[in-house]
Amino acid sequence: MLQLLTSSQTREADAHTIKNKPISSLDLMESASNAFIYAFKQDVPTIDSLISVYCGTGNNGGDGLAIARLLKENAYDRISVKIARFSAKESADFSANLERLKLTGIPITEITNTDVFPEENAEVIIDALIGSGLNKALQGDLKSLVIHLNQLQKKVIAVDIPTGLPSEGPIDPDACILKASLCVCFQRPKINFFFPESAKALERFKVVEIGLDEQFIQSQAGPWKYIEEKDIRYSIKPRKAFSHKGTYGHALIIAGYTETMGAALLCADACLHSGAGLTTACIPENGYSALNSFAPEVMILPRSELILGKSLEKYSSIAIGPGLGTDKEATDLLEYVLNFNKARIVIDADAINILAANTELLTKLPKDCIICPHVKEFDRLFGKSNSWWDRVTLALKKAKEFNLIILLKNQYTFIVTPDGDILINPTGNPGMAVGGMGDILTGMIASFLAQSYPAIEAAMLAAYIHGAAGDQLIQMNSIPPRYITEQIPALIKRFTAPD
Ligand SMILES: NC(=O)C1=CN([C@@H]2O[C@H](COP(=O)(O)OP(=O)(O)OC[C@H]3O[C@@H](n4cnc5c(N)ncnc54)[C@H](OP(=O)(O)O)[C@@H]3O)[C@@H](O)[C@H]2O)[C@@H](O)CC1
Ligand SMILES: Nc1ncnc2c1ncn2[C@@H]1O[C@H](COP(=O)(O)OP(=O)(O)O)[C@@H](O)[C@H]1O
Ligand SMILES: [K+]
């Protein structure tokens, strides 16, 4: 997993690299600027594009000056540089790069006040005004400049981070930010890129290596970790020779209601496709024939038997909630499952809403229980948050308090653990924003739990593979959830095979 850094940790990684590699800070800036150019060339291959580089006077601005010079060396020769000089300060590496830039003949304009902005006919704007050194919300002259640049509606490519976006912490919905169509960021994505509020600052990002000390970065403390394919390959176990259905556990799916039987079918079918040896669905009687025709491999536990106290001993995992409803019977079922207390459980959808209405049940959750709320379910359960940063911070607190794994769903799903980690899932795409998609994920988690994966791994494998299945169908505008299920077995097999 990639350890993500706060802006102050990034500064430490920067200083550590300069001291120990060793490399001068000016050479590190050159390396960062070269890495930017590499990504830029892929996005703007036309060398006669008109490019304007807007620079602040800190190190982000220093990058901008070096980038302008390197673009010229790479045959882009229709470049101009605009320096926003609203204060007398400049960083040493900015000054050094300004001297180098002056030798190239690239036109440089200084913007010292905002009464009149220089005319701008560039097709591409490179934003090197402020990077990770942002220390307050934009205001004054710089804010006026950013508002002006946003109004031009040009293609903007940001260096390291869009000007005005903080690297971490709550994103103010009213903040003034220079909106980028692409951000080329250095070494690690910024934590704030993973929150929906960042959509006002950037459309997409690319991460480029700039030569910071990886060992140092990985040894940094902090909850934010980014899941990589190699983590999945490392966790996932191939099926063994001489194994049989009993080897892979027996999952019980307690789900479905007259109007929402589909949720139970999708969930049970996804569990089956994710490798559980046996899958049983506990659904109302009016769903039996639908289940038998949709997924004949799945067995049935009559709802009436469970209500009468049928033992849960034989099940290696239990999923409860998809399409379950929130009536008295559903509440009793959840309580019964929680009282059993031995099962490896995943709680979703209506079962989360039942928890929200009966918060005393939270204390009955067994150790390493997984809940997988979407944002509304999460807020119903734990209260409203003002920002995603606050919401995930709250999840961290609740995961510790209740010894619980919280899988908070979104474009980037956050898996928050009782040990204080926040694992960010990178897979998935907006085609997956279709009802029933979460039911598939819950079935997958139940399946991995049944197969004896530790709970955090079960959550991680399910989230990653679920999203990766969606990414295999990226050519579809919207993805019916059952299409995800079809992808799962081959995808799991692929992750068990050598690279
Ligand atoms: N290790 C790495 O990743 C590497 C990072 N590198 C690059 O360095 C960048 C970080 O550079 P940095 O620390 O010099 O800060 P930077 O972003 O230029 O901003 C500081 C300037 O902005 C000003 N300022 C701040 N807030 C403001 C506001 N609201 N409104 C107005 N002004 C404001 C602040 O002024 P002050 O408040 O101090 O008066 C100061 O002048 C990083 O993003 C990357 O591009 C690479 O070169 C090499 C390796
Ligand atoms: N824009 C998106 N990008 C990536 N994944 C998404 C996106 N939208 C939805 N998903 C995924 O689809 C699932 C939706 O779950 P949920 O909202 O519970 O659906 P439902 O309740 O209809 O089953 C989650 O796993 C979520 O991560
Ligand atoms: K920037």
From TrEMBL:
Catalyzes the dehydration of the S-form of NAD(P)HX at the expense of ADP, which is converted to AMP. Together with NAD(P)HX epimerase, which catalyzes the epimerization of the S- and R-forms, the enzyme allows the repair of both epimers of NAD(P)HX, a damaged form of NAD(P)H that is a result of enzymatic or heat-dependent hydration. Catalyzes the epimerization of the S- and R-forms of NAD(P)HX, a damaged form of NAD(P)H that is a result of enzymatic or heat-dependent hydration. This is a prerequisite for the S-specific NAD(P)H-hydrate dehydratase to allow the repair of both epimers of NAD(P)HX. Homotetramer. This is Bifunctional NAD(P)H-hydrate repair enzyme. Binds 1 potassium ion per subunit. It catalyses: (6S)-NADHX + ADP = AMP + phosphate + NADH + H(+); (6R)-NADPHX = (6S)-NADPHX; (6R)-NADHX = (6S)-NADHX; (6S)-NADPHX + ADP = AMP + phosphate + NADPH + H(+). The lineage of its organism: Bacteria, Pseudomonadati, Bacteroidota, Sphingobacteriia, Sphingobacteriales. One of its GO terms (biological process) is nicotinamide nucleotide metabolic process. The gene is nnrD. (6S)-NADPHX binds at residues 59-63, 131-137, 160, 263, 323, 374, 439. It comes from Daejeonella rubra.
